Amino acid sequence: MASTSSRLDDPFQISSAIPSIQHPDPVNTTTPFSSQSTSTTSTDTDEFPNQSKLSRPKIMSRKSSGTIIVPREAPTQAPPQDFPPDDARAMSPRRSSEETDKMLVNARQSIERRAQDMQSGLEAIATQIETVSKNCESLDKQNQALQDAIGDMTRSLSRESLTSKKK
Fold this sequence. Notes:
Number of strands: 2
Number of helices: 4
Helix content: 40-55%
Structural class: mainly alpha
Largest sheet: 2 strands, antiparallel
Strand content: under 5%
Low-confidence stretches: 1-7, 31-40
């Protein structure tokens, strides 16, 4: 037990117990990794004798993907293409022209039915407005007649009260 605790006290001994990782070799291009460590500075090896400085592998060159700028005169959509019947693009679940025509007819019919229902509802509302306005006019006329009758009664009562006081 004493030997393991002394090993744990010294971090350099722990790192020596860990297996080393292979590092890229910048000199040898035939094998991408070698078991030998790359060149290190003397300060690195003095501080950490079992660790070496890692170096990155070289970036492989790539071809340019070109510009993504599209000229203004370029067509915005690809022209429609006819595919052979065994092509997967031709076998995609697209609707035929007969199916689209049938859907179009059904959609038009449902829109026409909804428009007729809305028009009949508007006509019902318009007739209801007319009847309410006629009732309102007749009630205004009746109200005016009642006000005239009440005014006549009050005048006649006031005349009678004046003539009775004079006697």
